[in-house]
Amino acid sequence: MTTSEDIVRRAAAAFNAGRRDEARQLCEEGLVTSPGEPMISHLLAAVLATSGEFDAARKHVEASLTAQPDNAAARLLAARLARMAGEFDRALEHLDRGIAVAPQREAFIEKARTFDQAGLWPQARQAWNAILDVIPDHAEAAARSGRLAWEDGEAALAVKFLERATQKDAPASVWFDLGLARQDLRDYTNATAAYRKAIELKDDHAEAVFNLGVVLQETGDLDAAMRAYAQAYRLRPSSFGNIAMALTSASHGRLWLDEAALRRELGG
């Protein structure tokens, strides 16, 4: 007789081998003979989630939790799916219930993400900082702690966090945030390096290109700044107003009385 454990074992092996359709079929067939079986429902939810079928995944993980409400792994999956649907209160309910049963590291990370995505900035900062206390090299926690510190006007603290985040393979967005924090501290040389790294990783990063122009202008390298502004203008023509304002308001700038002449200078 085939048991639920056998079905889960075979389906998990198929999934781990990259045979998602087979794993799904095994789970669906198992639920025909054992409707609502929690292990199978949980595994099917995980399979569906990896395929982007989030609504169906939520249905099955909730069925699993109805039968086994104290399954911490299922609570974590349900929380992720709820967060992705924008149901943050529901996500936090799942996480708190799961953490009470088994305080997993991944659950605390998911809780920080949920606070962050929900716009609960104080709670997010506290949660990310707590993760760094336990996992000092956690790149995502360092990046988000840095960004949130910068948004709270704590540029020096932001730099410390963001420099930690860039010790690993950080995306362009983290290098851009590091550039912003250094720029606020008037550390233009290192801000330039951070913006250049962001552009190297994402050559259409219009904000990084524009800010590179600003810091180059602040250092007195107006020719290089104009080249950066021209690139920013090509990437995003709507940035013209910001470019014109930067050129006339910075300590090293030019006064353009003719808008058409500036557009020509920028290549437009």
From TrEMBL:
Swiss-Prot/TrEMBL keywords: TPR repeat
Organism: Bradyrhizobium erythrophlei
TPR repeats: 172-205, 206-239
Highest rank taxon of the organism: Bacteria
Any one GO BP annotation for this protein: protein O-linked glycosylation via mannose
Segments crossing the lipid bilayer: none
Classification via Gene3D superfamilies: Tetratricopeptide repeat domain
SUPFAM superfamilies: TPR-like
Classification via PANTHER family: PROTEIN O-MANNOSYL-TRANSFERASE TMTC2
High-level lineage: Bacteria, Pseudomonadati, Pseudomonadota, Alphaproteobacteria, Hyphomicrobiales
Record flagged with keyword 4Fe-4S: no
Name of the molecule in the record: Tetratricopeptide repeat-containing protein
UniProt-recorded Gene Ontology molecular function terms: mannosyltransferase activity
Ranges in coiled-coil conformation: none
